[in-house]
Amino acid sequence: MAETTELIQHIELYVDTSRSPTEQAASFNSIISLVKSDFLTIEVLVKEMRMYLTTTDNVIRARGILLLAEVLTGLASKPLDNATIHSLIGFFTDRLADWRALRGALVGCLALLRRKVNAGMVSASDAKLVAQSYIESLQVQSLGQHDRKLCFELLECLLERHPNEIASLGETFFYGICQAMDGEKDPHCLMLTFPIVETLVRIYPDPSGSLASFCGDLFELLGSYFPIHFTHLKDEDAEVKRDDLSKALMSAFSSTPLFEPFVIPLLLEKLSSSLPLAKVDSLKYLNHCTAKYGADRMAKHAGAIWISLKEAISNSLEKPAMSFTSEPLYGLGFQENEIATEALMLLQKVTLQNEALFLTLIIQDEGINIVFNSIASHEHYNNIPLQGKQWLHAVGRILYIISKTSMASCNSVFESFFPRLMNTLEISVTNSAGDCTLNENTFPSKKFNFGALYLCVELIAACRDLIMRSKDLALKPDTSQETCRYMLQSFADSLVNAFSSSLATNANEVAHGADIYFKVKGLQILATFPGDFLPISKFLFGNILTILMSIILVDFNKILLWKLVLKALVHIGSFVDVYHESEKALGYMGAVVDKTVSLVSRDDVKMPFSLKLEAASEIGASGRNHMLKIVQGMEEAIVAKLSDYVHGNLKSAEKTIQLLECYCNKILSWINETGGLEEVLLRFVINIWNCIESCKDFSIQVQEEELLDATMMAMKLAIGSCSEESQNIIIHKAYSVISSSISIPFKESLDATSSIQLEELSVSEQIDKSSHRDDQIDKFSLRDEWILSHFASVIIAVRPKAQIVNVKGILHLFMTTVLKGCVPAAQALGSVINKLGTKSNETANSIDCTLEEAVDMIFRTKLWNLNENGVLRTCGSGNGSKVGLTDLCLGFSSNKLLRVHAIVGLAWIGKGLLLLGHEKVKDVTKILLECLLSEGRICAMELKQGLLENSYEQHSVMRSAADAFHILMSDSEVCLNRKFHAIARPLYKQRFFSTVMPILQSCIIKSDSSVCRSMLFRASAHLISNAPLIVILSEAKKLMPVLLDGLSLLSEDILDKDKLYSLLLVLSGILTDKNGQVAVIENAHILVNCLTRLIDYPHMMVLQAICKALDDPKRAVRQEAVRCRRAWG
Question: Is 471 exposed, middle or buried (0-12, 13-18, 19+ CB in 10 A)?
Answer without folding.
Answer: middle
